[in-house]
Design goal:
2 domains; three-stranded antiparallel β-sheet; 2 helices
């Protein structure tokens, strides 16, 4: 009986010993793969070939290829009337509110806060950075 008690105590004591933690996979070196804020010459050439211009946008000020829409600034009441989205002339309107009007999105890189118009009403408001 005494042997069982000693064996039980030994088992309990061994349960308290921490096991070796598995090795965590190595994280990629951030310096080896930085976020590019400047476009390569090849990307600049491709952008120009698509009719775009290279501009810095967003909080990071990253260079982006910006392609203008032919109907930019045209009055609209729905995105179906535009190449891009129909944007409320005044941002921040409540969804479902009757819109005073919208304008077709200027280019394919929309940043900042804006409200979209669908069927003549504000559909949603979003801020993109």
């Amino acid at each position: 009986m005494r042997g069982f008690a000693i064996l039980g105590a030994a088992l309990l004591a061994s349960a308290c010993v921490p096991a070796e933690a598995p090795e965590a996979p190595e994280a990629p070196d951030a310096a080896a793969q930085p976020f590019q804020t400047t476009m390569s010459e090849a990307d600049r050439a491709a952008c120009a070939a698509d009719g775009g211009t290279v501009e810095r946008r967003g909080r990071l000020g990253a260079e982006l290829c910006v392609v203008p829409f032919a109907d930019a600034g045209k009055s609209c009441t729905d995105a179906s009337q535009c190449e891009g989205q129909c944007i409320a002339e005044e941002a921040g309107a409540q969804p479902g509110a009757q819109s005073l009007g919208g304008l077709c999105q200027a280019d394919d890189r929309l940043f900042g806060c804006y409200s979209t118009i669908e069927n003549g009403k504000v559909a949603n408001t979003i801020c993109v950075d």
